[in-house]
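To whoever is on call:

I kicked off a structure prediction for a single chain this morning and the downstream step that reads the tokens threw a length-mismatch warning. I double-checked the sequence; it's 65 residues and nothing unusual in it as far as I can see. Pasting both halves so you can look.
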Amino acid sequence: MRGRELLIVAAGAGAGLAIGAALSRRNGEAERVLSAPANVLARFHGLFPGVTGDLMGLVAKYLLP
């Protein structure tokens, strides 16, 4: 169950992180990414926005109904 904690954020913890980020606004952050997988994807998109768009297009075409 330890690995699962890296993939999800409990509602209370997520709310606390969101409120804390909104109140502190440290370093001029415009957004706060809460989970580890979302953070990795956000960084990947920052580095390779075209690739991310292409991958999302393939997911929409082949994996979504």
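Update from on-call: the warning came from a stale cache, not from the record. Cleared it. Sanity check on the structure: Residues 59 and 65 are 10 Å apart (CA to CA).
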